[in-house]
Specification:
The complex is a heterodimer. By secondary structure, chain A is mostly helical. Among the domains of chain A are: 29 residues; 105 residues, no CATH class. Helices cover 45% and strands 5% of the residues of chain A. Chain A contains seven helices and two strands. By secondary structure, chain B is an alpha+beta fold. Chain B has one domain. In chain B, 16% of the residues lie in helices and 33% in strands. Chain B has a five-stranded antiparallel β-sheet. In chain B, strands 6-5-4-3-10 form a five-stranded antiparallel β-sheet, with no helix packed on it. The radius of gyration of chain B is 20 Å and the shape is globular. Classes of the chains: A mainly alpha, B alpha+beta. At the A-B interface, strand 1, helix 2, helix 3, helix 4 and helix 5 of A face helix 1, helix 2, strand 1, strand 2 and strand 3 of B.
Chain lengths: 194, 242
């Protein structure tokens, strides 16, 4: 009888030990092991350029030789490499649209005025930010900024005339004024995917 | 009903306006268009004086259909270039190159690595689709997101087809589409060097390791599954002339 009890107790103790060991094993497996990822460590200079973006729309809208543009750098922009193409395309815009803009009660800029207004923003093709000033396109670019309408106004309209500002088209608005999903108030700010 | 721009809606329009109205950079340029993973959609960058942070976002592989996976490519290199100055005069060379690469773990799960984030003492790396914290103000996120860009591209295409402006400011062509995004955040004091270089200019580039396929066995993903901008590309390719 006593022996039986001892055997039972031993069995319980052994079982408890096994249970504890099982718990330990479970805990170990549930703790996220550090994930080790393998990344290429090659010199960045050994990669071949594919795309380049600074301001929205510049490379897309007023540059004709897009691959060459993507291959170049802001230092090339600043040397005036792309100014002839920009000038030609902006002149083409005005040639086609000035009558329409005037008919809509707006005052178009001349090509020279357009380049004077937009040039400092798009040459070189970078997002420029004065961190001592308020944030908002074209002082940087926030997710919610109406960049297309602002860009159109700066390129097409004579700013400072008849109350026209960079926000004249955005105030209409010409394009949708906001994203389809609300942005997050905190990091990472972009809305969850569909 | 096109309730958009009263006065311009019914005006005839020549092709050049169509070109500029595209905005953003989705599917821009033959080489970039052919390389979905390396095709930048947009660059965003802003500062918050109250939070003391600076944030940059680069989006790529746009027009993802709902439910389609993110596009991570271990052979692509994404760089956010930072030039900074005490004045509004820049020398237009990058002072910091924030380099972003993707890689896999032994299970085939993708991770992201961000090098040279201002203030960081080492590369920040970890799983995609999660916020990686490196101190109180340095954060990294890479993952699939709703495309934050909004624009009536369909109105643009209609305008291109008809020669008459058809914008609808209630219609966002990018609604319901996803992009892959990398978001990096840092201490504003770190990127401005304690405020001594308060003027910044940023641009983003993508590049590809040409021999990486043979060395790593990781094939690139050059095949877009969604090419709605074919018409736009052809318009642009005409040289922006009426």
């Amino acid at each position: 009888m006593i022996r039986t009890h001892l055997i039972l107790i031993a069995g319980v103790v052994a079982g408890t030990g096994m249970l504890l060991a099982g718990c330990g094993g479970h805990n170990t497996s549930s703790t996220p092991a550090p994930q080790v990822f393998t990344f290429l460590a090659d010199d960045t200079a050994s990669y071949v350029r594919i795309d380049r973006v600074g301001m929205p729309a510049v490379g897309t809208a007023v540059i004709t030789n897009k691959d060459a543009y993507n291959d170049s750098n802001p230092a090339d922009d600043a040397q005036g490499t792309w100014v002839p193409q920009i000038q030609s395309n902006v002149a083409g815009l005005h040639s086609a649209l000035d009558d329409d803009l005037t008919g809509a009660g707006l005052t178009p800029a001349t090509t020279g005025e357009s380049l004077a207004q937009a040039g400092p923003l798009i040459v070189p093709d970078t997002l420029k930010i004065d961190t001592a000033a308020a944030s908002g396109f074209p002082n940087g670019r926030q997710l919610a900024d109406p960049v297309v309408d602002v860009t159109l106004a700066v390129v097409l309209l004579k700013l400072g005339t008849a109350g026209q500002t960079a926000l004249t088209l955005a105030n209409l608005p010409l394009n949708p004024p906001a994203n389809d999903k609300a942005f997050l108030s905190g990091f990472p700010y972009l809305a969850a995917p569909f | 009903m096109k309730p958009a721009f009263k006065g311009l809606v019914t005006l005839g329009l020549a092709t050049p306006l169509l070109v500029i109205l595209m905005g953003s950079d989705h599917k821009d340029g033959p080489s970039a268009t052919a390389d979905h993973a390396a095709d930048i959609a947009d660059l965003y960058a802003w500062h918050s004086t109250s939070a003391g942070t600076f944030t940059a976002v680069v989006t790529f592989a746009g027009f993802g259909a709902p439910g389609a996976p993110a596009v991570y490519d271990a052979n692509a290199l994404y760089t956010i270039h930072v030039d900074r100055s005490a004045t509004t005069t820049f020398d237009n060379t990058p002072k910091v190159d924030i380099n972003i690469r993707f890689g896999k773990d032994a299970s085939g799960h993708f991770g992201v690595q961000v090098e040279n984030l201002p203030g960081a003492t080492a590369a920040i790396k970890g799983a995609v689709e999660t916020t990686l914290n490196d101190g109180p103000k340095r954060k990294v996120f890479a993952g699939l997101r709703d495309d934050p860009f909004f624009f009536d591209l369909d109105g643009f295409k209609s305008t291109a087809a008809t020669g008459t402006l058809h914008f609808d400011n209630t219609h966002d062509t990018f609604a319901g589409t996803n992009v892959t995004a990398v978001v990096v955040e840092m201490d504003l004091a770190d990127i401005t060097v304690g405020g001594t270089l308060p003027h910044l200019q940023l641009w983003a580039t993508t590049a590809r390791k040409p021999t990486a396929i043979a060395r790593t066995g990781i094939a690139p993903d050059p095949t877009p599954t969604h090419r709605p901008l074919t018409l736009i590309g052809s318009v642009i390719a005409t040289g922006n002339t009426p």
